[in-house]
Structure formats: C-alpha cells, structure tokens
C-alpha cells in the first residue's frame, strides 16, 4: 500500500516533452538561444557536500550536460574549471556565475581541444590555479549528422575523432601525473555506442571507442587509486541537437523513442557524474552508467 504522505515525481511528466521546430542553427549552438530552453539544475540542484575540497575540470562545461555537471560539482563543494570554444563565451559566463554563486573558484578556459598543446595547457592551468586536479570529466563532443557515407566529409570525420577521442586521450595523459589516489576520470559516451544511428556514423564510432578507452584506462589506473568510469546519456536536449546534431525533421519528436517518451534534460545527468566523482562510488571502476530514459544498453 502506498503511503500518501509522500509525493513522488513521475519521471514521465517530471519534465515536459521537447518539441522544437525543425530548424537548424549554426555550430556549435548556444544554450542562451536554445528553444525550448534546457534545464541545467540552476533552480533545482541542491548539494550535500559530497565533493568538498575537490578540484575538477569539465570539458564542454559551458552548456548542456557539461554545464549541469559543472553547476552540480560546485554546489557539492568543488572548484571547477570549464573548457569550451571561444564562440561559447556567453554560455560559459552564465555557468561561471553559477559556480561563483556556490562559493567556489572557477577557471574559464576557452580554446580548441583538437589542439594537443591546448589540452596540455588546460591541465597545467588548472593545476596552477587550483593547486591540483582530482576530477577530470571528458565531456566535450562533436556531433554532425550525415545521411550518406559517400557525402561524409573527410575533415568532419577527422575532427569528430580528434574532438571526441584524441582530446580525451591528451587530457587524460596530461592529468594523470597530477592525480592523487582517490581521483576520478569520467568520460561521456552515449547510447549511440550501443544503438548507433545510421546518420551518426562518425559520432557513434567515437562513443563506442570511448567505452573501450574507459575500461582499458580504468584497469591501468585502478592500482594507483584512480578510478575511471563513463556515463552513457540517451537523447538529451542540448544545443548539440539543433546545431546539425540531428536531421531537422527529427527535432519535433526528439526523445520520443525512449521508454519515458521524452528527451532528457541536462539536470537529469548531473547526479550520475556526482556519484562517480564521489567516494560513494569507490568500488565502481570501468563501468558505464546508462542514463538513457529506458533505451536498452548491454
């Protein structure tokens, strides 16, 4: 018998269904211009001091999942460096304000993660400003749909690989020497690693590779007390989707294929990253935590 003194959130209706117009916007897209707007937890995430004293780097921290993670980390007590492209400065400053409002230090690092030298500089600057780094979230990603492999530009395939995989490698390689026992690495993969879309060949390929990288590096680093895991989001409403991430005709029904019948919001991803960053997940190593709205994963 249900105790009626408690009111539970129904996950089907907790957030409204996203039904954006079938319109493309230029890459990389902007949270400030996203319609309908995304929820990063600004008005809802309440921290419980699970990351006090921690020093985090979040790539793609200006918008979408990265923004929600950065805000949640700060409210849990961590100082946070966010990495983003210069075109996303407006979004980045909004997130930076949220981090400052939480009473934490913020470091904003605009640049291009395709450049290995910039990846190395990201780690060096975080170590210099924060005195170290013990959480690395490799979240930045490139996703551009293409309906025919014969029309998939070589430079797009190359840049998707370098943004989604190479940058993760360069950042992890540079960060590990600075990470003490108890540190964590969290990589963003995707349901696309398991259920690849025929119009996201390059993107889905990178997300499967991220899963393999995570498991391999987790086994290598675990004896040092450094845990590596991944989060696999399902269809989440972010600027990535209308900025060439999905065919425009699919946007009005984005997320409807999930068991919950709707797209997820970035705020619904943040707790997964907090869990994997915190000591509560101390026995979780090399795992991929699926947050897919019910879309099946192995």
General description of the model:
The structure is a single chain. It contains 7 helices and 7 strands. The protein has 298 residues and is an alpha/beta fold. The chain starts with 54 loop residues before the first strand and ends in a 7-residue tail after the last strand. The protein is globular, with a radius of gyration of 18 Å. The chain has one domain (55-291): Rossmann fold, CATH 3.40.50.720. It has helices at 64-75, 89-101, 116-130, 154-175, 201-221, 241-245, 270-277, and strands at 55-59, 79-84, 106-110, 135-138, 184-188, 227-233, 288-291. It has a 7-stranded parallel β-sheet, sandwiched between helices. It is 32% helix and 12% strand.
Structural class: alpha/beta
Low-confidence stretches: none
Query: Which topology does CATH recognise?
Result: Rossmann fold
Strand content: 5-15%
**How many E strands?**
7
User: What shape does the CA trace take?
Assistant: globular
CATH superfamily: NAD(P)-binding Rossmann-like Domain
How do the SSEs run, as a string of H and E?
EHEHEHEHEHEHHE
The oligomeric state is single chain
CATH C-level class: Alpha Beta
Q: Spatial order of the strands in the main sheet? A: 3-2-1-4-5-6-7
